[in-house]
Amino acid sequence: MAMDEYLWMVVLGFIIAFILAFSVGANDVANSFGTAVGSGVVTLRQACILASIFETTGSVLLGAKVGETIRKGIIDVNLYNETVETLMAGEVSAMVGRDDGTTDS
């Protein structure tokens, strides 16, 4: 399998993952700091700084555990040893179809 052939899928997956992480992080911040900013306990600037620090720290410290859970606890990646492109396409499709429950319907 030539890696150049699937580079577009890696790039697309990165872009989608970045957008999802940004939107989920923004929703987390809105939920945790909304009332504090609304009541005037912290300013919007302070909330953004605190959120940046703690969201980044959380992703750095716990990101590997999430990846390990997906790799070992949810799917058996060894089933896709011969068809890695199928696994890649499935993971990108799962990110595109992801519903994090942050929007009201």
TrEMBL record:
Cell location: Apical cell membrane
GO annotation terms (biological process): phosphate ion transmembrane transport; sodium ion transport
Major localisation: membrane
Domain of life: Eukaryota
Transmembrane segments: 6-26
Keyword line: Cell membrane, Glycoprotein, Host-virus interaction, Ion transport, Membrane, Phosphate transport, Receptor, Sodium, Sodium transport, Symport, Transmembrane, Transmembrane helix, Transport
Recorded catalytic activity of this chain's protein: 2 Na(+)(out) + phosphate(out) = 2 Na(+)(in) + phosphate(in)
Database matches in InterPro entries: Phos_transporter (IPR001204)
GO molecular function terms listed in the Swiss-Prot or TrEMBL record: phosphate transmembrane transporter activity; symporter activity
GO cellular component, one term: apical plasma membrane
Membrane topology: Multi-pass membrane protein
PANTHER family: PHOSPHATE TRANSPORTER, SODIUM-DEPENDENT PHOSPHATE TRANSPORTER 2
Subunit structure: Homodimer.
Stated family: Belongs to the inorganic phosphate transporter (PiT) (TC 2.A.20) family.
Function, as annotated: Sodium-phosphate symporter which preferentially transports the monovalent form of phosphate with a stoichiometry of two sodium ions per phosphate ion. Plays a critical role in the determination of bone quality and strength by providing phosphate for bone mineralization. Required to maintain normal cerebrospinal fluid phosphate levels. Mediates phosphate-induced calcification of vascular smooth muscle cells (VCMCs) and can functionally compensate for loss of SLC20A1 in VCMCs.
Annotated protein name in UniProt: Sodium-dependent phosphate transporter 2
Gene it is expressed from: SLC20A2
